[in-house]
Amino acid sequence: MTWLLTGGAGYIGSHVLEELQAGGTDVVVVDDLSTGLESRVPDGVPAYYVPVQKTEAIEEILREHKVTGVIHFAAKKAVGESVENPMYYYEENVGGLASLLRAMEQAGTRNMVFSSSAAVYGQPDNPEVSEDSPLVPESPYGETKAAGEWMVRASAVSRAQSENPLSYSLLRYFNVAGAKSPTLGDTSVANLIPLVFRALSEGQKPKVFGDDYSTPDGTCIRDYIHVVDLAQAHVVAAQACEAASPGGFGAAYNIGTGTGSSVLEVLDEVRAVTGNDFEHEITPRRPGDPAALVADPTKIKTELGWSAQHDLADMVSSAWEAWQAQH
Ligand SMILES: NC(=O)c1ccc[n+]([C@@H]2O[C@H](COP(=O)([O-])OP(=O)(O)OC[C@H]3O[C@@H](n4cnc5c(N)ncnc54)[C@H](O)[C@@H]3O)[C@@H](O)[C@H]2O)c1
Question: Which residue in 29, 109, 173, 287 could disulfide with 47, CB within 3.0 to 4.6 Å?
Fold first, then answer.
């Protein structure tokens, strides 16, 4: 078994790389290093620093390494930036995936795991979402993830009667946090926990965007998932594709804990971990933020036997160690 990881030099990709290698799977990396770090790719792993938009180069890599499956992480992920520059997000996330699916079709690669996002659900009426909840993305970023899911399914349908049908898993990640080791931390400052760390490092008060939501403490509730748990979900999803008859597997899964934490609860956890009894500042709501969004993770537990093992304290403490190592 050899799996190609697009975006394997990224935060999540590098964690999945370690889990796959630990389980004896050979890995190959494709990454354009636009946000990834070469230092996250272990020595000895074949790595090609090219964009996924280079269809022919990708096809050649798939053939040369006899790749049996692809995990597609490579994408741009900042919601705010996607609102400011939507065509860039469509070019990267949708254009990049179209190129990759074409290369996989041409090389006859039979398995795929796609990095989707809870952003596909938008602002649901019921905060606990199952995979059957409607996809109503509210940002260009979320739209590119919903479109990505449709593209993978469409490719599988078109290949169903071919010599090389496609099996796939669509993984809808909730709020990813934490690190397996200090060198693998998230270097982007887009999510709540790194934003709080940055404010503290700069001597600022962390901002809380709105405290008048219809939640128990008035702040937004999200489902935080440890990146190591998320990495293990990729391993079981990849195995499910490999174990099925060719083209015999296709499913979407929520990857979360099923438990929500409010912004104020996360801040309290940061106070406990850092020993810093900081004050925070309440600022106006950000447009498009749902009051609460929590995964119903029953489907992946029932079908693939995966469930999250780490709690918020593990996420905040490992993220803090990584933040300190980076800065
Ligand atoms: N981090 C989260 O909370 C979160 C939540 C939901 C979904 N996701 C998705 O998970 C995936 C990985 O996210 P991450 O947090 O590891 O981000 P990241 O920015 O650390 O990783 C993305 C990787 O892809 C590479 N890349 C980007 N565009 C590329 C291209 N056109 N060709 C080749 N390589 C390219 C980057 O250099 C980087 O190494 C993304 O698809 C993201 O949308 C992340």
Answer: 29
